[in-house]
Amino acid sequence: MPKFALIGTIEVAPGRTEEFVPLLMAHRARCLQDEPGTLQFEVLLSREDTTKVMLYEVYRDEAAFDTHWNGTSLARLREEATGLVATVSGIRCTLME
Questions:
Q1: Residue 56 CA to its chain's centroid (Å)
Q2: In sequence order, which residues have a C-beta less than 8 Å from that of residue 61 and are 6 or more positions away?
Q3: Is the pLDDT of residue 91 over 90?
Q4: Which end of the chain, C or N, has fewer beta carbons within 10 A?
Q5: Which of 10, 2, 12, 21 is nearest to 56 (CA)?
Q6: pLDDT at 1 exceeding the cut of 90
Q7: Over the stretch 41-86, which tens digit does the pLDDT of each residue have?
Q8: SS (H, E, C) the chain
């Protein structure tokens, strides 16, 4: 079964990126530690638009992503980041190896 990848974009409320990023990095650490199906989780900050945070995530398979999406760490991040995030979008991909 092929690995599942996600390329995500989070638009942070203007002026709130410095507040949001530490919450996201803590979420990243929890996912890599507590979710065996989460293989890679990279956070990228746009140099051109300070409200954009990009994600590159790799999962063992789509079921592992579903576990992540419905898991406690993401629920915690959503709660902690209330009012900090304007939009979230993502592109689901199959990782070619």
A1: 7
A2: 1, 2, 3, 4, 37
A3: yes
A4: C
A5: 10
A6: no
A7: 999 999 999 999 999 999 999 999 999 999 999 999 999 999 999 9
A8: CCCEEEEEEEEECCCCHHHHHHHHHHHHHHHHHHCCCEEEEEEEECCCCCCEEEEEEEECCHHHHHHHHCCHHHHHHHHHCCCCEEEEEEEEEECCC
